[in-house]
Amino acid sequence: MFKEKVRFVFKALITALLFSLQSIVYGGWAISVMAIPLLPYLIGIINEYMRGHNPNLERDVYLMLLAREFIVGRLIAIVGFAIFLVAAFQFLRERKEARLIRTGLYSVVRHPQYLGIIIITIGLNVMVFTLFGNQLKPICLWLVQVAGYIGLAKYEERHLGKKFSEQFRNYKNAVPFMFPIKCPSKIPETLFTLLIAFIITLIFLIFPFQLLRIL
Fold it and tell me: Which residues pair with 25 in a beta bridge?
């Protein structure tokens, strides 16, 4: 039981650390709007809170939640957040039964919580690219995030394979890994997942995101 809790906390911390690499739209200090990774932004928020003020917070909330030009990215992020919440609720509800979860979103992909987070990051990147155009640094950081989530998922599956043996192997053969696309039998699952991530990266690189500002 203690090992289960340690593993759960470890995965939660690594997931949060990976998500903190995500670039977001930021109101800036005195230099108009910019993009900044989430971690330094949160550090700045805490620092300003300790000093008793944050003159940019209201503008940041408006940009993230209400600014019209970010509506496409915002909708994508909301869909991802909804998937993450439903998967997290199902996981927390059924993990007490100490059984392999195979229903609901877990019948679509084996790791719907990571799928939800990835969709959130896609939405946030679309918001950044809508304002600044296609930028290589956020794209590279996104690939690091996805690779990290793949690593965490594989770490979790090693435990599940030991705990549920044949039951998990059958589940693994029937349900896609992280994206709802069945992996061809001749391609390693991890490689196929990375291939999908690279295809999304290519879209990030060539899509004319500035056009979304005039919707």
Answer: 35
Contact 197, 146 (CB under 8 A): yes
**What's the gap between Cα 127 and its chain centre?**
14
**Half-sphere CA count of 67, side-chain side, radius 13 A:** 21
For residues 123-135, one letter each, b for 16 or more C-beta atoms within 10 angstroms of the residue's C-beta and e for the rest, the string is bbbbbbbbbbebb
Residue 30 binned pLDDT confidence (cut-offs 50, 70, 90) = very low
Nearest to 8 by CA among 96, 69, 72: 96
Q: Distance between CA 138 and CA 134 in Å, rounded? A: 9
Give the integer Cα–Cα distance in Å for 163 and 43: 39
In whole angstroms, what is the distance from residue 86 CA to residue 104 CA? 9
Statement: the pTM of the whole predicted model exceeds 0.70: yes
